[in-house]
Design brief:
The complex is a heterodimer of chains A (298) and B (425). Chain A has 298 residues and is mainly alpha-helical. Helix content of chain A is 76%, strand content 4%. Chain A contains 11 helices and 4 strands. In chain A, the strands form 2 sheets. In chain A, strands 1-4 form a two-stranded antiparallel ribbon. Chain A has a two-stranded antiparallel ribbon with strand order 2-3. In chain A, a hairpin with a 2-residue loop joins strand 2 and strand 3. Chain B has 425 residues and is of the alpha/beta class. Chain B folds into 2 domains: 219 residues, 3-Layer(aba) Sandwich (Rossmann fold); 154 residues, Rossmann fold (3-Layer(aba) Sandwich). Chain B contains 13 helices and 16 strands. In chain B, the strands form 5 sheets. A 4-stranded mixed β-sheet of chain B has the order 2-3-1-4, sandwiched between helices. In chain B, strands 8-7-9-10 form a 4-stranded parallel β-sheet, sandwiched between helices. A 3-stranded antiparallel β-sheet of chain B has the order 11-15-16. The relative contact order of chain B is 0.13. The chains are: A mainly alpha (298), B alpha/beta (425). The interface between A and B is large, with 43 and 41 residues.
Chain lengths: 298, 425
């Protein structure tokens, strides 16, 4: 193979790997967007809750030797419960218009959840189970990790499930109604607090899947990744358009792919700088993100 | 309440007060040698602090069980320690150092876990003793974990008891040269946002590899001559696509760079979390170098907890392994106290014993009125040390630099455990 072809393969493989890994960013971004779409508030605990859920799943793996699918399921359920608890403690009793108080409360909860994990595990990296970890599909010069294909499949199924709930169920209708006009929704008999709480649980379930898929893709779980994952989730949801689920998916893949590209061409020290520059460019020239805000409040 | 009961209660109160009043001077008369220790007890690097505290607790118990510390007037005093959380944060480490120096009766300090925090904290200590123009802290520190080369010489009050990576990697590559004569090329990567990983990789490991005839793939790196630090910037430049950050989760690009290199020997200079991430990705991409070398900090239980299968075969030099009776005792004590003894934390045991030795040798009085003089005696005593007994053998002191030369061994990950494969002691 000529040098040009080798380089071409290398670049496309690099971008492809990034796109696959970007699916985990997309899931985190969707969670941020879901809650922002419903309440117009940022839930900064989202990634921390997602990883805390993954730790609960890991406990099942460690103590009762639960198989990987059960670990993923437990992670999702635990994260859903944590999501509900976060709603009650950080959002439920704070006046709807006091955005700063809710933001600060959720930042506090982010570090609180993270410290609980740190104190429980002493911060040690722990092996996280993965499915198809050793499988590598090779197509000519290209290779695709089996576990990342599995993560992609899970992410697609989760997103379809979420979209189904949002657009084909009464709960989804209520969530969309509350996100568009909470007072009108209340006048129509929708319990706003209950709907918001369910949205947090739903987002939490998705977060648990994202957390366990991220841990599964790395193969190791550590509290070190909480803050970077929170930052990635925020970047993805802003680039995608806060409140937009398709935007979060597209932005997750975009960030994943570009991140790898920047790493390949410019090295690790400049990689994050370019990703943040991208965020800056979006905020200046396209503040509504790729897809704008799909759900808008009066 | 009747008058009799009231009188009895009043009398009991008077008696209790009198007892307390008489008891106080007795308590004050029991002098103690106080140590202040600090390290990461919160944040993602908490395991370092947990391990150091567990080892230190065991050391102080062992000292007190054997009678305590002999003071200048022959009194036997107990040793006590307080452990503070500096979270591997430079600001917190500095605040604790200031507080300990000004508000406690601690004679010496042990800490503060991370090299970055230590480097910043050492900066607030008086550079040269007796320099009246320098109002820096005058309090002796004997650091146990922060391993980045050459830190202690920042101040004459700061000392370290950490392995010397320059010596260790020199010996490791010399040994690897004789064990693997057919190995010619090397390639590697590091966590560039961690000063210890980065500097050790670019300034020490690659240089020592070069010194013993291992060439970076593609004909070497400009400026790298085998001398420490030479060509360091170029090392980081040529490895820019194979480096990563401490909290990275995706290593596909770096692992492919390793694979593309086709090097005989691969080097992973990072802490356990990313060492595991990188090793797992290398396994997925079926990268099997003839020799794999890791950073000293990864020769810990954390790496084996995170990725024992992927780490199989990696060589790392370390200043601690439970291969002597004393080291095995420390490993057991650490475990009993909820921690683990490793190359970082085991030094806390030695440090407590070194401080005991110095206190006894310099006639420390451990009285409130002699605190300043006692701290100075401890400092002078630490500086005067030439050799001390360590867990793995004799520890040499580099007196004008505050550093140590510790015995070391080479370990290899084998079936989920660290096995000593070479013991040059």
């Amino acid at each position: 193979m000529s040098d040009f072809l080798l380089e071409f393969v290398e670049i496309t493989q690099t971008i492809g790997d990034g796109l696959f890994f970007g699916t985990t960013y997309a899931l985190i971004g969707i969670g941020f967007s879901l809650i922002f779409g419903a309440m117009r508030k940022l839930n900064m605990t989202y990634a921390a809750a997602a990883l805390a859920g993954a730790y609960v799943g890991l406990a099942a793996f460690t103590f009762i030797n639960a198989p990987a699918p059960v670990v993923f399921l437990i992670s999702a359920l635990a994260s859903g419960l944590i999501g509900g608890a976060v709603y009650i403690t950080c959002f439920r009793f704070i006046p709807i218009n006091n955005h700063l108080a809710a933001l600060m409360a959720s930042i506090g909860a982010l570090f609180f959840i993270d410290e609980i994990v740190v104190h429980t595990t002493d911060g040690s990296p722990l092996t996280f189970p993965a499915l198809f970890d050793d499988v590598m599909f090779e197509m000519g010069p290209y290779g695709v990790r089996g576990d990342l294909l599995f993560v992609l499949a899970v992410n697609i199924v989760s997103t379809i499930g979420l979209l189904y709930v949002l657009y084909r169920t009464r709960l989804g209708l209520a969530t969309r109604a509350v996100s568009q006009q909470d007072v009108a929704a209340q006048l129509c008999g929708i319990d706003v607090h209950r709907t918001n709480a369910i949205t947090f649980v739903l987002a939490g379930l998705l977060g648990g899947i994202a957390g366990s898929m991220t841990a599964s893709a790395v193969g190791v779980l550590s509290p070190l990744i909480t803050v970077p994952l929170t930052v990635k989730g925020l970047i993805v949801s802003v680039i995608g358009g806060l409140g937009s689920i398709p935007g979060a998916i597209a932005a997750g893949l975009l960030v994943g792919g570009l991140e790898n590209g920047f790493l390949y061409f410019r090295g690790v020290n400049e990689r994050d700088m370019y990703v943040l520059l991208l965020l800056f460019v979006f905020l200046i020239f396209r503040p509504d993100g790729l897809f704008g805000s799909a759900i808008d409040r009066d | 309440m009747s008058t009799t009961k009231l009188t009895a209660a009043a009398l009991a109160g008077i008696v209790a007060t009198a007892l307390l009043a008489f008891a106080h001077p007795v308590v004050a008369a029991e002098r103690t040698v106080k140590i202040a220790a600090w390290g990461a007890k919160s944040g993602p690097l908490r395991s370092f602090g947990v391990n150091s505290e567990a080892v230190l607790k065991g050391a102080i118990k062992a000292i007190n069980d054997s009678g305590g510390v002999k003071l200048g007037d022959g009194t036997m005093a107990k040793m006590e320690f307080t452990y503070y959380d500096s979270a591997c944060n430079a600001d917190q480490a500095i605040s604790i150092a200031r507080k300990v120096e000004s508000q406690t009766a601690a004679l010496a300090g042990i800490g503060p876990t991370c090299s970055g925090a230590a480097a910043a904290m050492y900066g607030i200590f008086q550079k040269k003793v007796d320099d009246k123009s320098d109002s820096g802290l005058q309090f002796p520190i004997l650091t146990d974990t922060a391993i980045r080369p050459g830190l202690a010489k920042k101040s004459q009050w700061t000392f370290r008891n950490v392995p010397n990576e320059i010596t260790m990697y020199d010996a490791l590559f010399k040994w690897l040269r004789s064990k693997y004569p057919d190995v010619k090329t090397i390639y590697g990567g590091t966590e560039t946002d961690q000063a210890h990983s980065r500097i050790t990789f670019a300034a020490v490991i690659v240089q020592k590899a070069k010194k013993y005839g291992f060439e970076w793939v593609g004909g070497g790196i400009e400026g790298v001559s085998g001398k420490i630090i030479a060509g360091m910037k170029n090392v980081l430049k040529v490895s820019k696509s194979s480096n990563w950050l401490l909290a990275d989760t995706n290593f596909s690009v770096q692992a492919r760079a390793f694979k593309r290199s086709g090097a005989d020997m691969m080097i992973i200079s990072s802490h356990p979390f990313t060492t595991c991430g990188m090793l797992k990705e290398m396994r997925r991409q079926r990268i099997k170098p003839k020799v794999l070398v890791g950073l000293t900090s990864s020769s810990s239980a954390e790496t084996l907890k995170g990725c024992s299968a992927a780490a199989e075969g990696i060589y790392i030099p370390t200043g601690f392994a439970p291969i002597t009776k004393a080291a095995a005792k420390v490993a057991a004590a650490a475990e009993a106290n909820g921690g683990a003894a490793d190359l970082h934390s085991a030094a806390a045991w030695e440090n407590a014993h070194i401080i005991k030795q110095v206190v006894e040798a310099t006639g420390v009085m451990a009285k409130p009125e002699t605190l300043k003089a006692d701290r100075r005696k401890v400092r002078d005593g630490l500086e005067a040390l030439v050799k001390v007994n360590g867990l793995m053998g004799e520890i040499g002191r580099v007196q004008n630099e505050g550093e140590s030369i510790k015995p070391y061994v080479f370990v290899q990950a084998q079936k989920g455990a660290w096995k000593v494969v070479h013991d040059p002691r």
